[in-house]
Amino acid sequence: MRPLEIKKGIYWVGAINWNVRTFHGHTYTTNRGTTYNAYLIIDDKIALVDAVYGPFAYELIEKIKQIVPAEKIDYIIANHVEPDHSGALPELMKVCPRAKVFGTEKCKEGLYRYYYLDLDFQTVKTGDTLKLGKRTLTFIEAPMIHWPDSMFTYCAEEELLLPNDAFGQHYATSERFDDEADQCVLMDEAKKYYANILWPFSSVILKKIEDILKMGISIKMIAPSHGIIWRRDSMNIINAYLSWAKNETKSKAVVIYETMYGSTEKMARKIAEGITDAGLNVKLFDISQSDRTEVVSDMLEAKGFIIGSSTHDNDMLPTIAGFLEFVKGLRPKNRIAAAFGSYGWAGGAVVSIEKVLKEMGLELAMPSVSVKYAPDEDELKRCYSFGNDFAKKISGKG
Ligand code: FEO
Predict the structure, then answer these.
(1) Domain region containing 366
(2) Around Cβ 252, how many Cβ atoms within 10 Å?
(3) pLDDT at residue 398 above 80?
(4) Is residue 132, in this structure, part of any structural domain at all?
(5) Residue 1: what pLDDT?
(6) Which alpha helices (H) appear in 231-334, and where do they start and end?
(7) Are 152 and 162 in contact (CB under 8 A)?
């Protein structure tokens, strides 16, 4: 793919990874691949904002060479040290050895520890600027969005925000702009990205966005370092981020369970039926059969979490246990929750689930429901009522 001019004199020179299917050490399934976006700004001085993942260094350099000889790059802006954006640096520095690198103090430390390069590095802080000619870049530190080194770069003359991971999506496409992409898929991927990567940092994200909005700067285009560029209405994705960062929810529930011989599954299906009949949206996931990344995405806007497991060794089953540990790390807030499950002789799963839900700081909406061996007709009716009552609590009627 050729470089793409996204604004006069500013080019996308990134790479598309069509076939990557896992990310962040298999914590994220990238069913639609991803892109590593880098941007080349041609002015009196030439600046490259971010690089790409190491195996794609040759693609980045080839694209740059289609615009200018790579040795003419004056500045490299390293918004983020994570290797999916910095991995190409060792190869890049071979073709533009005189380029000066700009980033935060943490970025300087991180780049050194990753690559042990002798870089001409200038540390920047929020409000520092770099004049290129007609354009000036302004740096905005964004620690923990989502690493300590993270930074945004803003170009006022172009009303362009280059926020690295923020507002990104793992979405490989031949289109580069939001108005060219499938809208449902785009927002679905943006939501999945937020849920799985940025959710734990919601309070930081909320403050950073509010601070940027208070600065009164005009942002007509947001060019993140993964996926599609937002140019149709940048407030669309900013407002979505504000809502997710505030942990705003919809009147919907997710029922997530793991079952050994099908008893907990029977309970789950009756609970979901009770929720549906109360008029609420519900999604049901057997976590042992589900894509965890997708489940977390569905949890982002759900008001209610209902978690179930069969008992095994006086505890919940291992897949749901691992999943709950992952969800705990995402730090969901403002949800209501409940637990259910089946057991053979001594229970334990439901108690363990309740414990984890409490550790997450979630409100247990109602007493848990447990069933010995397999649910009989009366117990299935109890499960139905459990779901029905939970739905009423979500909608504020119970
Ligand atoms: Fe896309 Fe935090 O790297």
Answers:
(1) 250-392
(2) 19
(3) no
(4) yes
(5) 74
(6) 234-245, 263-277, 292-299, 318-330
(7) yes
Ligand 1 atom 3 nearest Cα: 82
Distance in angstroms (rounded) separating the CA atoms of residues 166 and 170: 12
Task: Tell me the C-alpha distance between 180 and 64, whole Å.
Answer: 24
- Ligand 1 center from residue 199 Cα (angstroms): 14
Listed residues 245, 272, 301: the one ending a domain: 245
Measured from the Cα of 226, ligand 1's closest atom is 1
Cα-to-centroid distance, 161 and ligand 1 (Å): 16
d(CA 57, CA 180): 27
Q: Tell the residue nearest (CA) to atom 2 of ligand 1.
A: 82
Distance CA 64, CA 182 (A): 28
Are residues 167 and 255 part of one domain? no
Binding-site residues, ligand 1, Cβ < 6 A = 80, 82, 84-85, 146-147, 165, 225-226
Residue type, 44: D
Length of the chain: 398
Give me the number of domains the chain comprises. Answer: 2
Let me know if residue 199 belongs to a domain: yes
Nearest Cα residue to 155 out of 142, 131, 130, 136? 136
Q: Rounded to two decimals, what is the model's pTM?
A: 0.97
Give me 125's structure tokens.
Answer: 């802080």
Answer yes or no: are the C-beta atoms of 7 and 1 closer than 8 Å: no
Alpha carbon of 30 to ligand 1 centroid (Å):
13
If you search the block for the tokens 């309970």, which residue do you land on? Answer: 267
Q: What would the pLDDT profile of 301-311 be if each residue is shown by its tens digit?
A: 999 999 999 99
Q: Is the dihedral of CA 82, 28, 322, 359 positive or negative?
A: positive
pLDDT in tens, 179-204: 999 999 999 999 999 999 999 999 99
d(CA 1, CA 87): 20
Q: What is the set of active-site residues?
A: 24, 80, 82, 84, 146, 165, 193, 226
From 31, 147, 137, select the one nearest 86 (Cα to Cα). 147
Same-domain status, 14 and 115: yes
| The one-letter amino acid at 157 | E
The CA 25 to ligand 1 mean position distance, Å, reads: 12
